[in-house]
Amino acid sequence: MFNPENGFVGYVELLAWFDEKFGKQTNYSTFKGYVYRKFKAKNKDRKKNSC
User: Which of 1, 22, 28, 43 has its CA 20 to 30 A from that of 51?
Assistant: First the structure.
């Protein structure tokens, strides 16, 4: 997890890893809220179309 070359693509992948690692089923929105509060992680914004 701490290897920057082997990062997670998104919350779904991170949640799957967490559930497997700790043997628990976690609600997606609860997990996403925790990750945001603890690490200030946000979804990437889409680039705006210049047209």
Answer: 43
Q: Any residues with CB less than 8 A from the CB of 44 and at least 6 apart, and which?
A: none
Question: What's the pLDDT score for residue 11?
Answer: 85
**Could you tell me the CA-to-CA distances from 26 to 10, 21, 34 in Å, in that order?**
15, 12, 11
CA distance linking residue 41 with residue 29, whole number of Å = 13
Sign of the Cα torsion 36, 8, 26, 20 reads: negative
Place of tokens 């929105």: 29
